[in-house]
């Protein structure tokens, strides 16, 4: 299961309030939470099971909660109560409306108080609960809500067991929030409260625009925010020395880096022979020689782009490139697993924008072949009687000719004159270039993670190390 669970919804203007079957439960919620220590281990009651069934029917996404996962594993009074309480809390606005929702998350038990209530927002902005609830009650535009939850063991290990830590994290996320809600920063309003639940500490977030017809949240925006929150919360995993060290993961990463370096070294020191790539390069060089304008992938005609794509596809068939690309994807997927169990479908290298530079590198190599042809013609004109060199050259004059790889001459539908050795070198150059950009991307992604380290938390970790007598 994902280590970070998020839930995004929005409240429509003039929404009808549905009481459902929950009003009585909410009214008596405090009594339900206070379970006798021994009683909580008893099997879940019939009433709890019926209520859980109703919750799942009315709010299907509650199946994604940590609490539901715990309940399924061990159906006791305690786990049932935890799930029911949390499910009701997460959907309380469906029952009570906007104004009371803000008040509820700010004042409910275990909401960590910053003054007389638990609501907070941007630094330097005073939060008056009565004013916030009135604003929400009068707001005629959409209001987005989010619940961000992690497990207690992760909260303790990563320092997210206090409201101040969550508050500081959210304040660094306002730009991402505005961007993905499609709301200009100056119009964004948000409030949140931290609930220090025993098993799954979490925050409730409310966000909206002061301009009532502004903002919308797409599925891509939801994924972006999940990713952004997860990276901020879990980036310290490698730095937490006061909990179980992640030696195995570090060793796997080291092995991946070593394997990538070995593969690239093998490619850089070895050869490469691929007649398909060579012929495609010749065909591309011929096309480019007849193409006007910028010789950049984005400006080329579809038929020329198709040749370039075919070259990338052919290069990516090499077993060594496949291994490198798999390593890159494994690293990417390890990051994604932090906030979701659903892995995006792997796309072919030719369609991956992270490595689009290979396409312009192919164009450059093809243009170099044309340049080599021009130099050859100049040399032949100047030294017609010179001693023949070690390579054969032949200019195409036939409509039905082909490239003879055995002779090392071009005999195809191309007017370009070249030699087999030069084209083979271009193919090898491209393979080396591709292997190096994949390796560099592996290192770049790792470096980016480390650069996002929160300085304040890093100082806390250093203080902890020093207190334990560990090396800094």
Q: Provide the helix percentage.
A: 40-55%
Q: Could you list the spans in which at least 5 consecutive residues all have pLDDT below 50?
A: 17-38, 238-249, 382-417, 450-454
Q: Major β-sheet, in short? A: 4 strands, antiparallel
Number of helices: 19
Helix/sheet category: alpha+beta
**Total domains:** 3
Strand order of the largest sheet: 1-2-4-3
Separation, N- and C-terminal Cα atoms: 34 Å
Structure summary, number of beta strands: 4
Q: What is the string of helix and strand elements?
A: EHHHHHHHHEHHHEEHHHHHHHH
pLDDT averaged over residues: 72
Q: What would your notes on this structure say?
A:
The chain is α+β, with helices and mostly antiparallel strands. It has three domains: 18-96, no CATH class; 111-234; 249-451, no CATH class. The protein has 19 helices and four strands. It has helices spanning 23-27, 29-33, 46-58, 66-73, 77-90, 92-96, 98-107, 129-138, 152-158, 163-171, 174-181, 219-234, 247-269, 275-289, 302-315, 319-336, 357-382, 420-451, 455-467; strands at 4-11, 143-150, 188-195, 202-209. The chain has a four-stranded antiparallel beta sheet with strand order 1-2-4-3, with helices on both faces. It is elongated. Mean pLDDT is 72; it is low at 17-38, 238-249, 382-417 and 450-454.
Task: Explain the layout of strands and helices.
Layout: E1 4-11, H1 23-27, H2 29-33, H3 46-58, H4 66-73, H5 77-90, H6 92-96, H7 98-107, H8 129-138, E2 143-150, H9 152-158, H10 163-171, H11 174-181, E3 188-195, E4 202-209, H12 219-234, H13 247-269, H14 275-289, H15 302-315, H16 319-336, H17 357-382, H18 420-451, H19 455-467
């Amino acid at each position: 299961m994902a280590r970070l669970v998020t839930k995004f919804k929005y409240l429509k203007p003039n929404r009808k309030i549905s009481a459902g079957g929950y009003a009585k439960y909410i009214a008596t919620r405090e009594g339900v939470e206070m379970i006798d220590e021994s009683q909580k281990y008893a099997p879940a009651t019939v009433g709890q099971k019926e209520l859980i069934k109703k919750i799942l029917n009315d709010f299907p996404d509650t199946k994604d909660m940590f609490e539901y996962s715990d309940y399924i594993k061990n159906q006791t009074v305690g786990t049932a109560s935890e799930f029911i309480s949390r499910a009701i809390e997460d959907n309380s606005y469906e029952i009570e409306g906007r104004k009371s929702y803000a008040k509820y998350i700010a004042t409910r038990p275990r909401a960590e108080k910053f003054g007389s209530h638990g609501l907070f927002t941007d630094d330097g902005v005073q939060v008056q609960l009565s004013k916030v609830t009135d604003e929400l009650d009068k707001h005629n535009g959409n209001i987005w809500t989010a619940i961000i939850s992690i497990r207690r063991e992760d909260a303790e290990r990563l320092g997210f067991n206090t409201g101040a830590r969550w508050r500081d994290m959210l304040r660094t996320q306002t730009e991402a929030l505005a961007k993905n809600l499609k709301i200009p920063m100056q119009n964004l309003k948000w409030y949140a409260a931290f609930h220090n639940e025993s098993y799954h500490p979490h925050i409730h977030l409310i966000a909206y625009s002061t301009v009532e017809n502004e903002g919308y949240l797409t599925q891509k925006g939801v994924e972006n925010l999940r990713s952004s929150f997860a990276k901020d919360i879990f980036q310290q995993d490698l730095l937490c020395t006061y909990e179980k060290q992640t030696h195995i993961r570090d060793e796997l990463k080291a092995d991946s880096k070593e394997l990538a370096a070995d593969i690239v070294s093998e490619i850089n020191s070895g050869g490469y022979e691929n007649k398909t790539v060579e012929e495609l390069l010749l065909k591309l060089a011929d096309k480019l020689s007849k193409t006007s304008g910028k010789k950049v992938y984005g400006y080329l005609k579809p038929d020329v782009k198709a040749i370039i794509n075919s070259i990338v596809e052919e290069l990516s068939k090499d077993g060594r490139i496949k291994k490198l690309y798999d390593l890159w994807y494994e690293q990417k997927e390890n990051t994604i697993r932090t906030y979701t169990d659903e892995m995006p479908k792997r796309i072919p290298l030719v369609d991956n924008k992270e490595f689009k530079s290979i396409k312009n590198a192919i164009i450059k190599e093809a243009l170099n072949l044309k340049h080599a042809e021009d130099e050859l013609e100049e040399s032949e004109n100047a030294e017609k009687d010179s001693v023949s060199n070690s390579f054969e050259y032949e200019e195409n004059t036939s409509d039905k000719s082909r490239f003879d790889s055995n002779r090392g001459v071009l005999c195809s539908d191309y007017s370009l004159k070249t030699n087999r050795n030069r084209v083979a070198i271009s193919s090898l150059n491209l393979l080396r270039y591709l292997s190096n950009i994949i390796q560099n991307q592996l290192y770049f992604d790792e470096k980016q993670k480390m650069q996002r380290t929160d300085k304040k938390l890093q100082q806390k970790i250093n203080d902890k190390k020093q207190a334990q007598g560990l090396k800094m």
